[in-house]
Specification:
Elements: E1 3-8, H1 12-23, E2 27-33, H2 44-47, H3 61-66, E3 71-74, H4 81-89, E4 93-96, H5 105-118, E5 121-124, H6 135-141, E6 145-157, H7 164-170, H8 177-181, H9 185-204, E7 213-221, E8 225-227, E9 230-232, E10 237-248, E11 251-261, E12 267-268, E13 279-287, E14 290-294, H10 308-326, E15 330-332
Parallel strand pairs: 1-2, 1-3, 3-4, 4-5, 5-15, 6-11
Antiparallel strand pairs: 6-13, 7-10, 7-12, 8-9, 10-11, 13-14
Helix pairs in contact: 1-10, 4-5, 6-9
């Protein structure tokens, strides 16, 4: 069976998702929504730097709602719940890396109602949050008994992140510590990572406080640092750490941490990634204790081509589409999903 897919937005994740759909044997690209008027009316193949596909991009929501499609991979910069609800009410399943990984009932209720009205399903997925921060810790925790603690942690060099507006105005790099600490990044990240922590708490069965504790730290440059936003001057923000923790009494039982640095030199405090370099780490304490290190999702300064983590985020969405289309209407989390996998390259099928 072939599922008809629409790609919503063509940023880094969107372009990678289109390429993934084109390679997937069960999926067919049938439409594409774009934010920019400059992209509207262009062939989608031209937008992704490939041969023409015979599919014209549109910036009309009504065009997408009227399209005969099974699923939408929804990947704009920021989510709009009203857009998602409209897509669901039109009968289209929605897979997105922008949230709804493990929503509270208050967060879920309006979108569940829209999904049930349209006979469609909403599934949040991705990489972190949306994969490494909850799905993989739960999978690896199955290799231990008497679990007392799980941790998921990201270590990334932001000098490779080619999105200067996001790096400066959303992430707060190059700003004063005071402005960065009061900026939007903590609130934006809370939405997904708190859900990740809650999923781990609930599935493992920790008797943890329902309130997830969040905190952040700042490092500033001690010398000029070249970055995607130009030179970061001494005293400006050049490193950020965010933590989300669930506590059972005084004991931390789940922790998710993000470490974003503009390199490992000229920072105060003198943060670094340690000898293991850029990576994701998943730690489980129980019987036995173990740590899993995942390399390859972060680019190194000077690398060319798309960031592997962005491609992986898109791939997780793409590979989820058949299972989401087959599910009952409503909201679908990892706890409801069957095992999914990647698919063989076309030349090997």
């Amino acid at each position: 069976m072939t599922f008809r897919v629409v790609q919503w937005a063509t940023g880094g994740v969107g372009v990678a998702a289109i390429k993934g759909v084109l390679e997937h044997p069960e999926l067919e690209l049938v439409g594409c929504w774009v934010h920019s008027p400059d992209k509207a009316g262009r062939d989608v193949g031209e937008i992704i730097g490939a041969e023409p596909l015979g599919i014209t991009a549109t910036n009309s929501i009504d065009d997408i709602l009227a399209l005969d499609a099974d699923a939408v991979i929804y990947a704009p910069l920021l989510p709009d719940p009203d857009e998602v609800a409209a897509l669901l009410r039109s009968g289209k399943n929605v897979v997105t890396p922008l949230g709804w990984f493990y929503p509270t009932e208050k967060q879920a209720a309006p979108l569940r109602a829209a999904a049930l009205e349209g006979g469609a399903t909403l599934h949040g997925t991705g990489i972190a949050p949306g994969g490494i921060s909850e799905k993989l810790p739960l999978m690896f925790s199955a290799l231990a008994t008497g679990v007392t603690f799980v941790r998921a942690e990201e270590f990334s060099d932001l000098r490779t992140y080619d999105a200067p507006d996001v790096v400066r105005h959303v992430m707060g790099f190059g700003d004063t510590p005071e402005k960065a600490l009061s900026g939007p990044m903590q609130k934006l990240l809370d939405g997904g990572f708190i859900q990740a922590v809650r999923m781990c708490v609930d599935k493992i069965g920790f008797a943890a406080d329902p309130q997830v504790r969040s905190r952040q730290e700042i490092a500033v440059a001690t010398a000029p640092i070249e970055s995607p936003i130009g030179v970061i001057e001494p005293g400006q923000v050049a490193g950020r750490r965010f933590h989300w923790e669930a506590l059972a009494g005084d004991e931390v039982v789940v922790r998710v941490t993000v470490n974003w640095l503009m390199g490992e030199e000229d920072l105060d405090p003198p943060w670094d990634f340690g000898p293991a370099g850029q990576r994701y780490e998943i730690e489980v304490r129980g019987n036995p204790d173990f740590t899993v290190t995942i390399n390859g999702f972060q680019s190194e300064p000077g690398d060319h081509g798309p960031e592997a983590g962005i491609v992986a985020t898109a791939a997780h969405c793409v590979n989820s589409v058949p299972a989401v289309c087959a599910a009952d209407p409503g909201l679908l989390t990892y706890l409801d999903m069957p095992l999914i996998s990647g698919r063989a390259a076309p030349r090997l099928t």
